[in-house]
Specification:
Shape: globular
Number of domains: 3
Order of helices and strands: EEHEHHEHHEEEHEEHEHHEHEEHHEHEEH
CATH topology of the largest domain: Rossmann fold
Structural class: alpha/beta
GO molecular function: ATP binding; FMN adenylyltransferase activity; riboflavin kinase activity
Organism: Bifidobacterium tsurumiense
Keywords: ATP-binding, FAD, Flavoprotein, FMN, Kinase, Nucleotide-binding, Nucleotidyltransferase, Transferase
Catalytic activity: FMN + ATP + H(+) = FAD + diphosphate; riboflavin + ATP = FMN + ADP + H(+)
Oligomer: single chain
Distance between the termini: 26 Å
Radius of gyration: 23 Å
Protein name: Riboflavin kinase/FMN adenylyltransferase
Length: 420
Amino acid sequence: MNITTLIPDNSGLVDWPTLSADKKAVVTVGAFDGMHRGHRAVIERTVQQAKATQSFSVVIMFDPRPNLVHQYAGQHQGMDLPEDAHDDQKISGIRQRLRIMRELGVDHVLVVRYTLAFAAKSYRFFLGQLVGKLGMRMLVLGADAVMGANRAGDIKAISLLAQATGVFQLEVVDDLGPGYVRVPASITPQAPESEGEPVDPTASMNKAELRAWSKSVQGRKVRVWSSSHVRYLLSQGRIKDANEVLGHAHGIEGTVVHGEQRGRTIGFPTANLDTVVDGYLPVDGVYAGWLIDLGEQDSKTSESADSEASDGHKNNSVQQYRDEDARSDSARLAPHSPWRWPAAISIGTKPTYSEETGIAERAVEAYALHDDWLDLYGHRVCVEFAGFLRPQIAFDGTDALVEALKKNVEETKELTRDML
């Protein structure tokens, strides 16, 4: 799979690459945050149509998320999002999305930096560029896709354009899945109050109760297969429901750093992630899942740290990630990989000790169920979630905490035994 980073110029124009002098392209477009079942359905159809027509399969992926760019502009007098801005609402990082696209057989991924100037181009202009520069002969989109200035390029408008010009076909994929669900207008993390996987609070409501709940949270209608729904589920600790929508275990990635090293003293040494992680952090709590070693951080970027995007600007988040890296990561992430271990995962402020230490920063710690201590300092790791175990609580001393952790280890063994 070929990965190319494209950064629009100040006027929003993109220097699209020439993929081939004669081979055509089947293209899909989107942010693909989370790579949930709906996204996969669209990309799978793109790859199928490309193979059937002996064309390239091309995914144009926007980074950062368009919603974040427009939200920032609305709050900062129309300014573009800073290049170093951290997006803590994205479900998955670029690397995670690229790996799945590679597994699905995509030929080319064009990662376009989404800017306001780029967003201001009409959908007609954008699609004309794809036809003229990439050789697009088929566009594959989900059923409710929109694009272009003022979101004017909906399925109906694009279909009319395809028919009028005759230069490309539009293939619409039924990616709606099992229907729709209501989620709060403002998603606020809410930790479950009891042990075990939380359930849908609306499942047992009658129609009147459901209307009252929806009114109280200003509920909005979203697809079951949607990034918004996944964020809501993760914010409530509903890992199994989120994983069902995603079609894979939700994961975050980060670099292992030195922590307080208290875990070693009580027999539960943990891998502590840096404060900035790639992916959406579920609500505070203790989870069962996996810890996967993706290798030393420096080894992922040393050979390509000086590579440049199409306009000569450095792009540290994407350009340093190559198909070889995706292949290596996929091998490490595979079931039964020697770099993968079941793990009890803690997200939170360590309430048992926070008053004593005065440290109240949110931390991610993973205790790998392994016979030996794993020296992963400086390594990039992936933490995958299988289920919610319990909320974060302040225990009455270390002994009580150790007993709870022993129970969590046994629960982790049980939950991950048949899920590799």
